[in-house]
Write the structure tokens for this entry.
Amino acid sequence: MEPIALSAALASFTDQWSPRIVTTVNDYDVRVAKVEGEHLWHTHDHTDEFFLVLDGELHIALRESAGSGERTVVLPKGSVFTVPRGTEHKPYAPVPSEILVLEPTGTLTVGDQHGEIPAHVDATTGHTLN
């Protein structure tokens, strides 16, 4: 029940694509992560996924409805974007970046549907902040 400085939370770890839970709001985790390079294509069947770019830049490739192809949204520092539930997406950070993600507690970082998980991506429901 104490304030948490996001800068201190982010300074407490170095792992990429390995979010830390900074607080909870109702049944949602507020997670921060350091990211660089590609994540993986995945889908969250039952929840939207909210992104806020704290530093750097995040690209999110989207495969929306059948037949509409792919598009990529670019989120510079300070931008927010929500990936709708059921939308296949792949985050990518072209430079070292820091993000905040809001998801229901227990949501896997690799979603409900995904391919092979690369070694640099942590398949987790979020780690406790030290």
User: Anything to note?
Assistant: The first strand starts at residue 20 and ends at 25. The radius of gyration is 14 Å. The beta strands are 20-25, 28-38, 42-43, 49-55, 57-63, 70-76, 80-83, 88-104, 113-114, 127-128. Residues 7 and 44 are 28 Å apart (CA to CA).
